[in-house]
Structure formats: structure tokens, C-alpha cells
Amino acid sequence: MEIGQRKPFSEAVNAFHGRPLPEAAIPVGYAALIDAFELGVPIPLHLAAIGPRHKVYEADGWKLYTPRHRPAPSVSGHLTFALRYEGLDLAVLKALFFATGPEPIAALIRAAPTGSYARRIWFLYEWLLDTRLDLPDATLGSYALVLDPDQQWAIKATTSSRHRVKNNLPGTPAYCPLIFRTPALERFVARNLSDQARHLVADLPADLLARTAAFLLLKDSRSSFQIEGEDPPQERIQRWGHAIGEAGRRPIDRAELERLQGIVIGDARFVHLGLRDQGGFVGEHDRQNGTPIPDHISARHQDLPALIDGLTAFDRGAARDLDPVLAAAVLAFGFVYIHPFEDGNGRLHRYLMHHVLAERGFNPPGLVFPVSAVILDRIDDYRRVLETYSRRLLPLIRWRPTDRGNVAVLNETADFYRYFDATPQAEFLFECVARAIDVDLPSETAFLRRYDSFKAQVKGMVDMPDRVLDLLYRFLRQNGGKLSKRARENEFAALTDDEAVRIEAIYADV
């Protein structure tokens, strides 16, 4: 048994940590390391194993490799397999490095000082743990990329001459979620949705574009409250809409997030503003005794300043080199998992999507895509995406209930919020942005064109102020294009029967 290893590596099994395999197979790579060192980390969404067949195939969250792919039953063997075939999982790697201690990792590097995988492991050890192994700087070996850009989305690399590697990780040790390249994400990026949106609005008259933008902004603000189960006064919706309209103008940091929280909360008499000074969770309370029933447990309040600093560094650094939608997903979903405030987290999480898209110039100038409205339409999918991480995270957090019906977290959890696989979240956000561009934007401009035509034709027949025309249109829309008997006898009693028939015909035509 190697130094630091707690138990032997597994042989063939039918299930791994409650997850069934497609057939009896030998867990390898991250699965083998998690099991051998009993690492308390979220189980990766996709795992690897060595199957009995001589073909590679995927099923049920597993990728089964052939017997010839089987790595040596050692830390070095499984680590190299993981980096070669599974990409980087920083949460697993950091937990593993703590579990092994420095000497096994240093021995691994001494055994293959020019090997690219050994030097990548060396860099990751020192980068993640902010420590220095007792090794001289590398002098041989071609420079290797830390993150394989064919597997996961990377940024422009910086050189680490000590390890002879190029660091292309999209973040810092304080905050670095990763996104795998998937066929869906490749297709979305290739579509160049930003240019598509610009072409859609290029020929719109300025007044029509301005009205479209105003309506979509208000729609997004209202939807963001509705997602939280709130129906606030119009003034509060408009105030938050104004804040969304200014997204991207200021860099994100703690002071800016706290300013935005003050706007979204409004009446703060019963809400603590600023970073939480106690635990936090999303879920319900037991009706009998008030004990928390968490669906998600937020980051410890002691860790919030450092985590927000990590978000800030990402926003000002790596986010500028990633595709804007990918960067928006990493920033926004990381924020909502951290859940730094007592209230307002959900709306600020969706604001951060707008922030990145606007700051990067992804939107046409002055236009906000109604992402929250699309999310509201897909609320069940949204919750499932949030839970792809929360459910894997929850069993790893030790907590006790407080006498205030809150949770007190008992173990170290900060790394769970720094490093996670943001692939499902990125795919979901791209789907929402694409829907907003493909459906909502052209639908709203088409509606306004029809509405303008209706108003012009009715005004050509009957002189009405705009507010009365608006009311007339709403009545027709609510009653299938017909004026109800009540409307004819009250608000529009002055219309003749012939005028009413002609107005209904105009509505049907447009």
C-alpha cells in the first residue's frame, strides 16, 4: 500500500457509492482515488471504469474503457489516467493532495521529472494548496497546458517556468469552476448568438427598438420576482428593472453586490443587509419543531469574504477570456450556490447573468434579453439544474440546527463552492439565451408592429386617446378578439354597432 493510501484500489464492482455501473467493472481515475482515500467530495457527474469488453462506451454516467486502458494500481497511475481521460476535477485533486500529504506527490514527480502529467500534477499541487514542494525547478520537458482545452473550456495561458507548464485555468485558486466541452455547448458557441441578435434588430426603427427594449426589461424584472414567488408593487419592479438596465457598467465586488441587494430588497426592516453573519440554507422547516429541512446549504458565513473575493477576481480576470455565456453561468451559478446574503440571492444571481452579457457587449446596445422570463417558463428545468450540484453537495455537509431555525455548518466546505462542474448550468443558460433570441425578441417586435397597426387603423376610424386604445386592445385580447357585452355597455358604449364590428375585424386582421 502506498504512503497515504487508506485502502486498496477496488476490483470489479457493480455499484460505486450507490451509483450502479452498466456492468461489473473496475473503477479507475477519480472514482478509484475517491474510494481508496475516502475523499469527502461531490462525486463527479461522469466517472470512468475498466469494463470486460474490448470497446469504449458510455452509459448511466459511466464511461467504460477496455482492459488495455487499465492504469497501474497506484496514485500515479490513477492520477495520470484521470488527467488524460477525465479532465480536471479541482475539488477531488485538492482533497486528494491533502490526504496523501506532500511526499507521495513529490516522489511521483521525481520518478518522471520530464513527464507532462507529472509536471501538471506538480503545478496543481502547489497552485491549489498554496505551498511549495521540496523540489528544484524543472529544467527539461516541453511546456504543457495545465487544462486540456479539447476537454474543458480554457483561457489564454500564462507561463509557470518552475513547472514548465502553461496555466490556462479559467480562474484562481480562490474560485475556479470548470466547464466540459459538450456537443451542445460547441453548437451554441458556433451559432454566434450575439451577432444573430444584432441582425434581428438592425432594421428596426429606433422608436420600436426602444419600446421593445423597455418591455423586455420590465418583463425580465417582473419574472425574476415571480421566480421567487413574489408579486411586488409596480414601482419595485421598475426600480429593479432600472438596475438590470445598468448591468455591466460597474465591476462586481462586495460593495457593488451589497448595493444591489439594497435595491432588490427595498424595505429592509426585517432583513439583514450585507454578507450573512450566520449560516444559511434553502429549504423548508419542520412544521412541528421548526427544524431546518435543507435542499441546499449555503457557504459558511466565515468563508464569505474570501469567496466573494474569488468571484470578484473571476469577474475581472478569467471571465474576460471565456465565451460570455459560459462566463455568465460560472459567475451567476457560483454566486447562488454560495448564497452570501440573507435575502435577494436569487434575483442577484440572475442579475449577474445580465452583468456579464452586457459587460462583454453580447447584447445589442440598450437591449436586455429576458432570461428570467425564459427561466420562469422553464422553472422545473431550472430547479433540476440547480439541484445537479446541490444534491451531490448536501450529504457532504455536516450541520446542526440552531435555536433560531437556521443551520450551523460543522466542517470545512469552502472548496465545494470554489470548484464545481458548471457544465449543466452553462448548457441551461445557453438554452435560455438562445430561446430569448430565437423566440422572445422577434415575438415582441412582431407584437409591437401589430399593435401599432391596430392603433393606427382604429384612430383612422375613431378618435381615441392612447390609454383608451390600450384598454380596447386588452379587452379584445382577453375575449378572443370580441368586445364583451359588459365592455360594449360600459367603457365603449359610445361605439356604434358598425364601429364595433369593424374594430373587431381590424383586430382579427392584425
UniProtKB/TrEMBL annotation:
<dbReference type="InterPro" id="IPR003812">
    <property type="entry name" value="Fido"/>
</dbReference>
<dbReference type="Pfam" id="PF02661">
    <property type="entry name" value="Fic"/>
</dbReference>
<feature type="domain" description="Fido">
    <location>
        <begin position="252"/>
        <end position="402"/>
    </location>
</feature>
<protein>
    <submittedName>
        <fullName>Fic family protein</fullName>
    </submittedName>
</protein>
<dbReference type="InterPro" id="IPR040198">
    <property type="entry name" value="Fido_containing"/>
</dbReference>
<dbReference type="InterPro" id="IPR036597">
    <property type="entry name" value="Fido-like_dom_sf"/>
</dbReference>
